[in-house]
């Protein structure tokens, strides 16, 4: 059994040159090597194969039966290696069956997920996608485990191994059923504090609204705490209650539920939204699909005003 880990690809190249040229001198010229270098490589080949491989005759270097048996596998192997190094397979969305895993919180899934899915259905019907729950605290672990290919997060903590691109900004708004709440707009701080609140938080305890109200010397009454924005509509329709959430999610939920979006009566600020990926696993086409979807889904913060 030959230990091929001790061999190198140059020996296969020398073998194939001798196979085709049937001459040490011509093989040397073809490889731009000296005859002595080719002869030394032939000696190593003979030792590895335990066979003369090429025998000098009046008609040149003739292959032995062992060499004849080796020729085709080595030719095929050389072709495969050359192809691997010289050919980059282009990604064709129309025919690709690739699967992508995207990490993002459910407010982003609500706002941009359908846009991504529709674009894939139109341009890449065989490409599939999984949306994984992620945020800036979990995204690095998910990348390292190979669980996601791309991620969209708010104000990420960027590490050196991840590439990133800011794709927009968002802020916060309120979602409610005005008829059930008996309110007119604009929403006042008094009305805001009087209404029962629905809190959406991963911890289920408090959020940015509570922190801002505390600095103003106020507090709200949280009636129910949820972990997913998508659960809000059934809790709000026909109910005297209000929720404060990212504006892009509020607008998407209002569009399918009949609820109303309005500006919060306190300044909750804005935040950047970034797309993250690994340099070694990038797909420019998919990255563009994600970027386009978020540029459409994220609001124009300069035009937002109460109804």
TrEMBL record:
SUPFAM superfamilies tied to this protein: Periplasmic binding protein-like II, Winged helix' DNA-binding domain
Keyword field: DNA-binding, Transcription, Transcription regulation
Domain HTH lysR-type as annotated: residue spans: 7-64
UniProt key word DNA-binding: yes
Record-stated family: Belongs to the LysR transcriptional regulatory family.
Protein name: LysR family transcriptional regulator
Organism the protein comes from: Gluconobacter cadivus
